[in-house]
């Protein structure tokens, strides 16, 4: 729920030590991009774009991290595939935690179009902007790997948000 505290998020990263959302302390936001895993060719292209735009997000006070339920070896293979040098790559997301974040869980269909075996269970994508106090500012979740938020557009949205001190929206939970 926007303006409410997000679930905890603590996990290992490939080259940035242990990640804790509570201790991340970005200037404005932590950008959490949950991805399906190494098996997903759409995730590869999506994360390449996030890697490319990570410096732009950081200029706006947003610190990106990409996270999946893959183990270390598969996360490293994805990092190598996308040429991750700026983007923090978290791994080992427990699926119970993914569900707390509202992510959808899928079952394996075997090998994907790129010949990589899907895990038995894995989460579908989600993108979140979380304020330093761990309250949700923006969230988007998918039931499918297709049609995700555009990272270039998100940088432009952040320019507007910052310039206009725009509040989180979708916070109303009363009767309608």
Keywords:
4 helices, 9 strands, seven-stranded mixed sheet, alpha+beta, Glutaredoxin, two-stranded antiparallel ribbon
Draw up the topology in text.
Elements: E1 10-13, E2 18-20, E3 29-34, H1 41-59, E4 62-67, H2 72-82, E5 88-91, H3 95-100, E6 105-107, E7 121-123, E8 126-130, E9 136-141, H4 151-164
Helix pairs in contact: 1-4
Provide the low-confidence segments as ranges. none
Widest beta sheet: strand line-up: 2-1-5-4-3-8-9
- Helix residue percentage: 25-40%
Give the CATH H-level superfamily.
Glutaredoxin
C-alpha geometry: globular
Oligomer: single chain
Given helix and strand content, the structural type is alpha+beta
What does this structure look like?
It is a single chain. The protein is α+β, with helices and mostly antiparallel strands. The protein has a single domain (10-160), classed as Glutaredoxin (3-Layer(aba) Sandwich). The chain has helices spanning 41-59, 72-82, 95-100, 151-164, and strands at residues 10-13, 18-20, 29-34, 62-67, 88-91, 105-107, 121-123, 126-130, 136-141. The strands form 2 sheets. Strands 2-1-5-4-3-8-9 form a 7-stranded mixed beta sheet. The chain has a two-stranded antiparallel sheet with strand order 6-7. Strand 8 (126-130) and strand 9 (136-141) form a beta hairpin. The longest helix has 19 residues, at 41-59. The chain is globular.
């Amino acid at each position: 729920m926007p303006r409410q505290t997000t679930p905890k998020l603590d996990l290992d990263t490939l080259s940035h030590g242990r990640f804790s959302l509570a201790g991340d302390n970005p200037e404005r936001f932590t950008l959490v991009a949950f991805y399906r895993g190494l098996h997903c060719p759409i995730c590869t292209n999506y994360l390449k774009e996030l890697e490319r735009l990570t410096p732009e997000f950081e200029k706006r006070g947003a610190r990106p991290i990409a996270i999946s339920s893959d183990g270390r070896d598969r996360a490293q293979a994805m990092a190598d595939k996308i040429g991750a040098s700026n983007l923090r790559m978290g791994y080992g997301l427990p699926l119970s935690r993914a569900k707390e974040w509202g992510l959808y869980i899928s079952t394996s269909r075997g090998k994907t179009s790129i010949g990589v075996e899907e895990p038995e269970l894995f989460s579908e994508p989600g993108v979140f902007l979380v304020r330093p106090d761990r309250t949700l500012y923006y969230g988007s979740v998918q039931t499918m790997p297709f049609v995700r938020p555009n990272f270039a557009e998100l940088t432009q949205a952040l320019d507007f948000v910052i310039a206009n001190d725009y509040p989180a929206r979708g916070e109303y939970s009363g009767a309608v």
